[in-house]
């Protein structure tokens, strides 16, 4: 066996790195949560005697997610891959506007014909941008105001930015916006197809974990790392539950502020950057329903209305209802800090405010339609891609020998984080490890 590598975090990045390195090295993954999978973890639910897995937070993938799709193939999960239409709509002032095709977008009443032309021109312009680097220092708001005008900003983009970044909406960079629009505008005349793994992305997480443990690797759940011990600019090991565990290398996938705490200021110049990367939280209700909520078949509904959430996502308007035996709905909002009511209030109170919002938006919705409901929320769900963020993207090898970083903060997840970005980050950190480590280069087989 090669080297002893400790991976902190069992999300997509940590598991992918572990999978790549486990054939030739001893892998131990520490996960602070009870379940593995991080942001892509699933909830196991039973309906009419049948067990199924559903992501705690809504997930789908795009055709451009090449590394993730390669990994799915490599793990033998290709047969589970489905490409399906997910209908989108925008709820404005009590009305739901389909937004799937250029013709439908032209019928979006809240924008005048002139504004729609400006919006179309903006999308065309975005499609022609190859490199977003020079847009990182420009605020999305300023750029939209300058290129498409006030009405397009206020009636189209502002509510979307608000629902995605809350109080930080006005600080988000044009680079993020361009990256996002590029992905979502590639729809063809019949609308885009999104990818999903039948059985849920839990199959991916479980398959990676299986491969790692089959090679003798260990995945320790409910086991947080408290310190990464660095001495003489070299990793010595980690501390968990007060115990020192020596190792040759550490791959950390945790949020930058947590990494700063774990490394106890030993990352020198990076300390300030780690402190300055702001993550936002998500409060997501997952609800099992007896009845379909959005009869018009919408999968994804963005919202401009006085409700405490930014989107309603009906999973079973995307995946077949028969796979679950009940209708599945996400109601979700991002929040910016731990003082937000979505974080401070009890789960049942958050759920109640969400349900009240649903009742306002959908007069036919009744609480007796609910089979079960859960609130999933955590603080570390996405970096906020503020103006100037590019300078904060963390390196895969930050300095001390034996320390590698991979996760939502990596360049592969800029300017928008995704499972694909974290697969790439995990692979990249593994490559850095193998390249820097002569002993391991020899034993690398793939
Ligand atoms: C609401 C929501 C919707 C999303 N939708 C999509 C989508 O549709 N498509 C898509 O591709 N992506 C989507 N994503 C993004 C995707 O889930 C993430 O980009 C990806 O899963 C991140 O993986 P990661 O391994 O980099 O980080 P994480 O999943 O955050 O993994 C880090 C892990 O480290 C653990 N950890 C933290 N501190 C410690 C410690 N001290 N000790 C031990 N363990 C620790 C955490 O518990 C976590 O499990 C979504 C994410 C969210 C939140």
From TrEMBL:
InterPro entries documented for this protein: Amino_oxidase, FAD/NAD-bd_sf, Zeta_carotene_desat/Oxidored
Organism domain of life: Archaea
GO MF entries: oxidoreductase activity
Coiled-coil residue windows: none
Domain Amine oxidase: start-end pairs: 12-431
NCBIfam families cross-referenced by the UniProt entry: PRK07233.1
UniProt protein name: Phytoene dehydrogenase
């Amino acid at each position: 066996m090669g080297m002893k590598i400790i991976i902190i975090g069992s999300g997509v990045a940590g598991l992918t790195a572990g999978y790549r390195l486990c054939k030739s090295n001893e892998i131990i993954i520490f996960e602070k949560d009870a379940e593995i999978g991080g942001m892509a973890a699933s909830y196991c639910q039973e309906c009419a005697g049948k067990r199924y897995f559903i992501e705690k937070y809504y997930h789908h993938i795009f055709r451009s997610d090449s590394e993730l799709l390669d990994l799915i193939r490599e793990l033998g999960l290709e047969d589970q891959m489905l490409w399906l239409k997910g209908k989108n709509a925008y709820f404005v002032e009590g009305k739901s506007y389909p937004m799937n095709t250029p013709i439908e977008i032209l019928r979006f009443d809240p924008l005048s014909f002139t504004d729609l032309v400006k919006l179309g021109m903006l999308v065309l312009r975005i499609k022609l941008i190859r490199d977003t680097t020079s847009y990182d220092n420009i605020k999305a708001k300023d750029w939209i105001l300058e290129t498409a005008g006030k009405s397009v900003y206020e009636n189209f983009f502002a509510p979307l930015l608000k629902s995605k970044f809350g109080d930080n909406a006005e600080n988000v960079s044009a680079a993020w916006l361009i990256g996002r629009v590029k992905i979502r505008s590639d729809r063809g005349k019949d609308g885009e197809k999104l990818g999903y793994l039948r059985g849920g992305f839990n199959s991916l997480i479980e398959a990676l974990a299986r491969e790692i443990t089959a090679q003798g690797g260990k995945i320790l759940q409910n086991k947080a790392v408290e310190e990464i011990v660095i001495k003489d600019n070299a990793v010595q090991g980690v501390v968990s539950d007060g115990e020192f565990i020596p190792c040759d290398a550490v791959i950390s996938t945790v949020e930058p502020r947590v990494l700063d705490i774990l490394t106890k200021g030993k990352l020198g110049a990076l300390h300030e950057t780690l402190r300055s990367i702001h993550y936002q939280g998500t409060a997501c209700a997952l609800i099992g329903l007896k009845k379909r909520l959005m009869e018009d078949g919408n999968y994804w509904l963005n919202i401009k209305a006085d409700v405490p959430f930014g989107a309603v996502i009906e999973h079973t308007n995307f995946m077949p209802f028969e796979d679950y035996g009940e209708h599945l709905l996400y109601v979700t909002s991002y929040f910016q800090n731990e003082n937000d009511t979505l974080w401070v209030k009890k789960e049942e109170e958050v759920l109640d405010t969400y349900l009240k919002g649903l009742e306002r938006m959908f007069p036919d919705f009744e609480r007796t339609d609910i089979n079960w409901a859960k609130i999933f929320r955590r603080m570390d769900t996405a970096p906020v891609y503020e103006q100037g963020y590019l300078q904060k993207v963390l390196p895969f090898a930050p300095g001390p020998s034996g320390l590698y970083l991979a996760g939502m903060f990596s360049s592969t997840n800029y300017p928008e984080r995704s499972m694909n970005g974290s697969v790439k980050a995990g692979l990249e950190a593994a490559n850095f490890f193998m390249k820097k480590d002569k002993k391991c280069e020899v034993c690398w087989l793939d």
